[in-house]
Amino acid sequence: MAPAGEWALLEKIRRKIPRRLQEPYRLRDDAGLMRIQGAHWVFAADMLVEGVDFRYGHAKPEEVGHKALGINLSDLAAMGAKPVAYLITLGMPRRFSTAWVTRFYDGLNRLARRYRMTCLGGDLSEAKQWTASITILGRCENAPIARQGARPGDILYVTGSLGGSLRRHHLGFQPRVEQGLYLSSKMKPHAMIDISDGLVQDLGHMLRQSKAGAALRLDQIPVSKDAFQMAGGDPAKALRRALTDGEDFELLFAIPVRQQKQLETGWQKRFPRVPLRAIGHILKGRGIQWMDRQKHVKNPAAGRTGYEHFR
């Protein structure tokens, strides 16, 4: 029998681990944290599976290698951590040639060199489906940022544009490592998460962990060109994609309203090619209030929240 759903299964797994072994964030973030000799070290692990995360024969091997490391770097970025090293484990069917694997590593290594990362080793096994699992290590020069911590009155920001990632973005995205480090050192967001399963779903994780609600300005959601194309130019369908499509790998974060001007001025100078948009604010209570030009509207994503395994 298949699991009831990804999040229900994860919650059951968490309950199997003693709480004293879950500190400090009790397995609620995409990355774990340990304090060693006065420094905060961040550990994350993520995998790619053929048929789920890419299609053999459609994606270039270099793109798959880039994505394998990139999704892990995105988890570090969300905590404001600097990449240091990684381990990689491959499960490989016989139909994947040595040339394919070599090109996979070409894509992975280009991204690793950008951040001067060290490969610490790994493992290789024959498998029915291609699987690339990476464990990544990063270091926080400043206090790490968790999903929890958003406070009523905080402004919600998102980087880049959202939706339609299946057209191309999910294989060629640039993890927001530099942006995460900048935010950690200059802005110190109260909460931050990377958008991997859809804006609504990942915002929901932040709100549940922060025990708060949010008001979202639908007219401020940065809808990507790919989302419009996949929606056939229909604005309502494109917005729905921006709210619920997965694998955008952008940063969603909450900062005090007093820092809004400083953030927007500093961001434009530091990252002129990376869009930044205020899309709402944190509220007391629970759930999401939907606003369009300051007017309350119905949930445009009703019945769909984002990507979830086993659903």
What is the H-and-E element order?
HEEHEHEEEHHEHEHHEHEEE
How many strand segments? 12
The strands making up the biggest β-sheet line up spatially as 7-9-6-10-8-11-12
Mean pLDDT: 89
Spatial shape:
globular
Rg of Cα set: 19 Å
Helix content, binned percent? 25-40%
What's the number of structural domains?
2
In DSSP terms, counting alpha (H) and pi (I) runs of 4 or more, how many helices? 9
CATH top-level class of the largest domain? Alpha Beta
CATH fold name of the largest domain? Phosphoribosyl-aminoimidazole Synthetase, Chain A, domain 2
Class of secondary structure makeup: alpha+beta
- CATH superfamily label of the largest domain: PurM-like C-terminal domain
Report on the structure:
- Helix content is 32%, strand content 27%.
- Strands 7-9-6-10-8-11-12 form a seven-stranded mixed beta sheet, sandwiched between helices. The protein has a five-stranded mixed beta sheet with strand order 1-2-5-3-4.
- The chain is built from nine helices and twelve strands.
- The chain has two domains: 134 residues, 60s Ribosomal Protein L30, Chain: A, CATH 3.30.1330.10; 142 residues, Phosphoribosyl-aminoimidazole Synthetase, Chain A, domain 2 (Alpha-Beta Complex).
- It has 311 residues and is an alpha+beta fold.
- It starts with 5 loop residues before the first helix and ends in a 15-residue tail after the last strand.
- The model has no long low-confidence stretch (mean pLDDT 89).
- The chain is globular, with a radius of gyration of 19 Å.
